[in-house]
Amino acid sequence: MVDKICFLIVLASAASGAIREFDVVIYGGTAGGAVTAIAAAREGVRVALVEPTRHIGGMVTGGLSKTDIGKQEVIGGIAREFFERTGKYYNRSVQWDLEPGLAERVMLEMVNESGAKRCLGQRLKETGGSLRIVTTVQELVMEDGTRYRSRIFVDATYEGDLLPGAGIRYTWGRESNAEYGESLAGVRGRQRPDHHFNVRVSPYDKEGKLLWGVYDGKKGRQDEADRKVQAYTFRMCLSDRPDNRTPYQRPENYDPGRYELLARLLAALEKDKGRSPVMREVMIRSALPNGKYDINSFGGFSTDYLMGSWDYPTANYRRRAEIWRDHQDYVAGFFWFLAHDERVPKALQEEVNRYGLCKDEFQDTGGWPYQLYVRESRRIIGEYVMSQKDIQTDIVKPDAMGMGSYQSDSHHVQRLPTADGAVENEGEMYVPVTPYHIPYRMILPKRAESTNVLVPVSFSATHVAYSTLRMEPQYMIIGQGAGLAAAMAIKSKQAIHDVDGVALSEALGKRGAVLEWKPSAK
Q1: How far apart are CA 205 and CA 202, in angstroms?
Q2: Half-sphere exposure of 209 (CA within 13 A, CB side)
Q3: Residue 24: beta bridge partners?
Q4: Do strands 283-288 and 292-297 pair parallel, antiparallel, or not at all (unpaired)?
Q5: Read out DSSP for 205-258?
C-alpha cells in the first residue's frame, strides 16, 4: 500500500509532458539495447529505444573498433547479422574490426528497418524517473517531462540506471573468494607482464609523497571483496594518413604532473633496453580499414585511467559528468604528453606524431569518441548469479540465450607503492574459459523485487563472470534474448519470469542463435 500511495503522489506531481505508450520500452541505446529493440520489433510488438545521447551503439559505434570476438563460431543471430552487414561494405563475408562511423550507420539501418522507434536525447529524471506500483514499473519520466508507458521495460544502459528506481538490488566491485566459491575473485596477484611495470620505477617525489595516479590506501587481502572497479578509458580512433588526421589537442585542464610516472617509466625502459621505447610498449594499436587504428591500453602506464572509475557506478549525473571529463582530460593529456613533452624520447615522440585523430570519425565531437568505456558498473543480484563455475565447468544451461567464449578479462583496478619502494598495478584477469551457455535467468531481477524489467547489460553476474560476459558481441546476443523474451511475454500475456526458458532457447535457435559450440575446421 505504501508503494501505491508513493506512486500516486509522484504521478500527480510529475511534469505534464507528452505520454508515449509502447509494448516494450528500452532505456539505453547501447549495442545490447539496439539489438533488444530489433529483436522485439521484428516480432511485431511496439518498441521504443530511448537513449540519453544523440547516438546509438554504445562502444560498438563509440570507439571500440577492434571487436573482442573470442571464438567467432559462437556469435550468431542478430549479432552475427550486424557484422555480416558491415562486411558487405568491405566486400567481405563478415567484418569484425570496424570503422566507428560505418558501425553506427549499419546499426541505425537495422533499428530503422525493424520498425522500432528511436527516441534520442531523452535522459531519465534523476529523482522520480521510475514510477512503479509494488513490483511493476508503470512508466519512465524523462528530464523534459516526456513519460514512457509500457508493459515491459528493459534497462540496457552500461550503468544500470533503471535499477534504483525500479527497486532492483544490485552490487558493484569485486566479490570475495568465499562468496561464490571463486578462486579468481577478490584482489589479484600478478598474472602476466603485459600491463605491469617491468622495470623498477619509484612512485615518490623529492618530498617522499606519492606521485599522481598512485593509491595511498590499502591494497586489500588477496581473498577479500572491495568496491573498486576496473579501469575505464576512451578507445581512441587514430589515423596515420596525412589527409585524414588532425593533431592531438592539448586539454584545457592539462597537468604534466599527471604523467611524471610515465616519464620515469619511459626513462627506465630506455635504460633497460638500450633503445628508445616504441608506441607498442605504451599502447595497443590495432589496424582498421582505411588507414585507421583502434587504441587500447598496454604496459604499466597507458590509456587506462586506474582508480578514476571507482565513484562511477553509484554516482549522480553531475558527478558522472565530472568523471567523464576527467577521463577525457587524462586520455587527451596522455597523447599530448607523448607528442610534446621534452621528457619523451625523440624517436617515440616522432612515432606518436605520425598519427592523429581521424577527421572523418566522431565529427560532431572533433574526433573524440562518443562513449566512455564503462567496462563494468552496477550488476543486478538476480534470479541466477553467473559465477566462475558457469564459465568453466557448469557450462550447459536449459534456458540458454546464446554462448560466450572470450576469456575472463578484467583490466587493472589500482596502482600502489610496493614495500621495497617501487610501484605495481593490481587487478588484471586474463583466464581462458570453455565456451559456455548464457541463461535467461541471468537477466531477470528477483521476482519479489521487479516483475517487468529485463536487464541485458547490467545483468546478474559476479565480477569474475562479468569479465567474460561484458564483451559487445555477448551484450548483443543477450539483447536478442531479452527482446524475444519480451515479445513472448506480451503475446502470451505472461510475466517475464513465467516465460519458458527452454521454449525461448528453442525460438532463439530458429532465429540464428548459436547454442552449441562447433569449432571451425582448419
Answers
A1: 8
A2: 5
A3: 47, 152
A4: antiparallel
A5: -TTSPBPTT---S----TT--B---PPBB---EEE--GGGEEPPPPPTT--GGG
Q: Are strands 436-439 and 400-404 parallel, antiparallel or unpaired?
A: antiparallel
Which positions ≥6 away from 493 have C-beta within 8 Å? none
pTM exceeding 0.90: yes
Q: What is the DSSP letter of 85?
A: H
The dihedral sign for the CA sequence 242, 243, 244, 249: positive
C-alpha to C-alpha distance for 432 and 247, rounded to whole angstroms = 39
Helix (H) or strand (E) run with residue 463 in it: helix 463-469
Question: Cα separation of 186 and 179, whole Å?
Answer: 10
User: Cα separation of 485 and 483, whole Å?
Assistant: 5
Burial 427-445 (b: 16+ CB within 10 A, else e): bbbebebebbbbbbbbbbb
CB atoms within 10 A of CB 55: 19
The proportion of the chain whose per-residue pLDDT surpasses 70, expressed as a percent, equals: 97
Cell for 406? 572470450
pLDDT of 193: 85
> Pick the residue with more confidence: 180 or 3?
180
Residue 495 · residue 418 · CB < 8 Å: no
**Distance of alpha carbon 429 from alpha carbon 407, whole angstroms:** 9
Distance of alpha carbon 350 from alpha carbon 346, whole angstroms: 6
pLDDT attached to residue 263: 98
How large is the angle between the packed helices 472-492 and 31-41, nearest 10 degrees? 30
CA distance 98 to 102: 7
| Three-class secondary structure assignment of 470-486 | CCHHHHHHHHHHHHHHH
What's the chain's length in residues? Answer: 522
Instruction: Specify which residues 174 forms β-bridges with.
Output: 226
Percent of the chain residues topping a pLDDT of 90: 94
Q: State the Cα–Cα distance between residues 7 and 138, nearest whole angstrom.
A: 9
Q: Is the pLDDT of residue 101 over 50?
A: yes
Residues 6+ apart with CB under 8 A from 391: 404, 408, 433, 434, 436, 464, 465, 468, 469
- CA-to-CA distance for 453 and 455, rounded, in angstroms? 7
Backbone angles phi, psi at 254, to 5 degrees: -60, 130
Rounded Cα gap, residues 121 and 66, in angstroms: 27
Handedness of CA 120, 122, 124, 126 (dihedral sign): positive
Q: How far is CA 93 from the centre of its chain?
A: 27
Other Cβ atoms within 10 Å of 361 Cβ, number: 25
Cβ atoms < 10 Å from Cβ of 125: 20
Paired strand residues for 258: none
At residue 192 the predicted structure's pLDDT band, cuts being 50, 70 and 90, is: confident
Q: Is 352 in contact with 339 (CB distance < 8 Å)?
A: yes
Report the distance separating Cα 462 and Cα 439, nearest Å.
14
